[in-house]
Structures are given as C-alpha cells and as structure tokens.
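[retry 2/3] Tfp pilus assembly protein PilF: previous attempt timed out, resubmitting with same input.
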Amino acid sequence: MPTAMPHNRPPLKPDLWSEEAIEEAIGKLKDTEPPESLRVFLEKRIEEIPQTKAHTRLLARLHNELGLFWLQKEEMGWARTHLDTAVSLDPENLKAAYNRGNIALYEEEFEAALERYETILAKEPDHGGATYNAALCHALTGRVAEALPLFERAVVLSPDYAGAHFWAGECLLHQEKPDAALPYFHKASALNPDHPESSRGLAICLFHAGRHEEAICLCEHMLETFGPELTALRVKGDALLALGNPVEAAQSHIDMALIDFDAREFLVNRARYLMETEPDKAPPYVRCVLDHFPDFKSALDPQEPLHKDRPQDGRSQSHAQ
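[retry 2/3] Tfp pilus assembly protein PilF: success.
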C-alpha cells in the first residue's frame, strides 16, 4: 500500500527548461497554437528562469520573442521594453538588435534606427534586413548617395526581394540616371506586378531609353490595372509625341488635366514648349488642347513668355502622382 505524502511537503520543483527544449516549444507553439499561447509560455519561462549571468542568453531569447509578439500586436511600448531588455542582456543577440531597430524605423526615428543597423552590419556584414533598412534610413532622410550602394548590396543579398530593386531604381532615377535604373525597375515590376510605383519607374526609364512603344504598352496596362494614373498618362503622351502622334499625345495629357486640376499647368507648359521647340507638332497638339479647354487660348498666345519651369520630356520621378 503506497505511503501517503505529507500535506506539508512542498511540491517538487520541475527541472528548468533547456534552451533546446524552449526553442522546440516556441516553434511548435508558433505552428499550432494561437499567439496568446506563445505569450503565456514565454512569460512563464521568464518568471521561472533565474536572473543570473548563466541564463542571460536564454532570457534574451525569450524577451526577444515576447517583444516580437507585442510588435505584431502593434503594442510598441511593450515591444520596446522587452527588446531593450533582450539587447541589454545579450548585446550579441542580433535578432533582438534588428527588431529593436525596426521599431525605431517604424516610429520614424531614422538616425536611431540607422545606428542600430550599422552596429549589426559591423558584426554581420551580410545581414540582408539590416542592409536594406539602413539604406531606407538614408533614403527617407534625403541621403540618396549613401542609400544607393546599400540598396545595390541588398539586391545582391536578396535578389528576389522587389523592394530592394525598386529603391535602387528610385535612387538612380533621382540621380537622373534612368538607363542605370531601368533593370532595377524591370526586375521590381516583374517580382511585384501589383506595385504601381515600380511600374511608374519602369515607364519613365523605357521612355528615356527610346523604347517608346514599350512605354506606351506599359502605360496602357497601368491605366487598366491601377485606374487613373498621372504618370502613365504623362509618359504615354510624351512617348506618343516622340513617335509623331501629337493629337493622341494631347488627348493623353488632356486626360491628366481632367483628373487633376494642377495638371492643367503642365498641359499649357507642354503645349508652349512644343510651340518653341517642335513647331511641326505644336499646331495639332494645341488645337486639340483648345478644343477641350478654350479658356487656355490666352495662355497659349505665342507672344507670351514661356513659363520658366516648363517640364522636360519624361522628367518626372516614379513616385510622382
């Protein structure tokens, strides 16, 4: 007959979880259970593991996972607290450092985020995420020259990531290097056909490369896919002009003015620019414009000085609307 256990004996303390067992449990919980189950598991493990130097690496791992949980919930305060703890416990935990940098980037603290990404890259130069996000920090603060080599490096590290190709193209287009930007926008658009900004950049680059028929086809596809698109209408019109179709070009540019009042200034400037530089194309273009906007007649008086800020053919950034 078994001996009864005395009521005053404390319960036996279970063995602490090993790092391998915790890793396995986290993986299973992520695959099979709702996120809340993972949170409870992580908090219990953090509570039971001794806060000693021998366990700092494991605790950092747990705090990083808990920070990710709150990050996905967009609870930035809790996420920041746990990720800061993880980085403090284990400065070599690059996952935690990267996730903490991502919070700074999300909150548009670009310099703080960049510092964290650069610290990671000093330890792991081929870290694709830190490379791309460091480039973003530069690009979003206007430092295009610093951003470009990092985006080009991100393309090498993550060749199937459309964002890296797109931003490399954007930087090159910003530097007025459309020929160099073309392959990046082409790849970005192929990887993510539903990204209108990539299509805009590609259309502009095709125009600059003299591939006018391709530019027109792409612009028509953009108009069918994305709806009214100022860049598509503008590039299509400019490509039609280059092919010697001023009436069709005017119709495309007129459509811009019909959907965006500010585009009317572009339309007038383009007409007057043609009057000065391509007088053979100007009359049919101007007649078409005046058929739709007769009140532009005085603005298209050839005796009036040309607007000093007249647009140049195809000279628009891919992000312009």
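[retry 2/3] Tfp pilus assembly protein PilF: The mean pLDDT is 90.
[retry 2/3] clearing retry counter.
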